[in-house]
Automatic annotation (TrEMBL):
The keyword Transmembrane applies. NCBIfam families: Gneg_AbrB_dup (TIGR03082). Keywords: Membrane, Transmembrane, Transmembrane helix. This is AbrB family transcriptional regulator. It comes from the Bacteria. GO terms for cellular component: membrane. GO terms for biological process: regulation of gene expression. The chain crosses the membrane at residues 34-54, 66-87, 93-112, 124-142, 154-175, 187-206, 268-290. It comes from Dankookia rubra. The lineage of its organism: Bacteria, Pseudomonadati, Pseudomonadota, Alphaproteobacteria, Acetobacterales. InterPro entries: AbrB_dup, AbrB_fam. The keyword Zinc-finger does not apply.
Amino acid sequence: MGPPARRSGALRTLPTQLLTTGSAALGGGLLALLHLPLAWMIGAMVATATLAWHRPVAVIGWARPAGLVFLGLGLGATFSGPVLAAVSGALPVLLAGGVIAIATGFVVARLFTRLAGTDPQTGFFCAVPGGVIVMAMLAQDARASVATVTLAQTMRVLVVVLTFPPLLGWLAPHGAFGEFMATRQPVWWPGLLAMAAGGLAMAWPLRLAGLANPWMLGPCGVAIGLAATGHLPSGVPAVLLNAAQVAMGASLGTRLTKSFLLTSRRLAVAAVISSVVLSLLLTLIAWGMARLAGLPVPALILGMAPGGMPEMALTAKALELAVPLVLGFHLTRTVLCNLLVGPLHRMGLKLGLL
């Protein structure tokens, strides 16, 4: 057992965690009754954020990683052999989309810097749609303001999560992309638990290597390997995917405290405005790319969307919008961000683009 002070602190935190989790689940359930896209995540986020304005909030430490494990398994299970071949055939489009999405950071960085009053270097890492964790890590390496980048990237994810699911849920046809859709596997709990154990074993070295989203990528890789070779033992039940949504929504909501928003009002406004501009720009680009490549427009819009990989993959899963293709876009962008953002940042400084 740990020291008495640590045990006492944990006991004081437990009621807050239970209240936060209960509120998040209730918020998600209420929106699910309205049949809204991504209801469990958005409802949990809004409920947790509302609670955070009035009292301290906290999420159980293992909730989000556990949710990401089953989300990764659920996403990887959609990669049957033919689906994996179709996604591999679209690899040139995935690479082009990733490079273009990163390059839009140069376009939006000037706008963000002017609105937020930050230095150009920090503004660049705030504007590039590379994910909260990845961009915070790269900003730290470049000695930019990590706190500012984290806040701006968080606000961008919130804007995307609150706008893209309802709009695509209203406008896009569901389940109409046969080449990117795999047959759903029935749930077999022993097989599912074995997959989760294998996913955790794969996730741990990725975490030690400092890779972003290891709890999702490790299980996703395991499930892809099993699904593509025809050895997937089980599907992932909807109740676990809904629980994953609640965990991620609550984690986002805990960041939206009153002090967080009120003390960074100018930065938050700049992040919202630049996120809207970035979203519109990438949506237009995605529409053009889809037309040229003969790929489904809704899936490319979601794949190019400047949201986080778990959130956008969940949206694709909920709307049945070619999940493997959307996940492929965001995985490719994550890899390219780690390879290209640093050199592009240095080149932008030299050329006076930032």
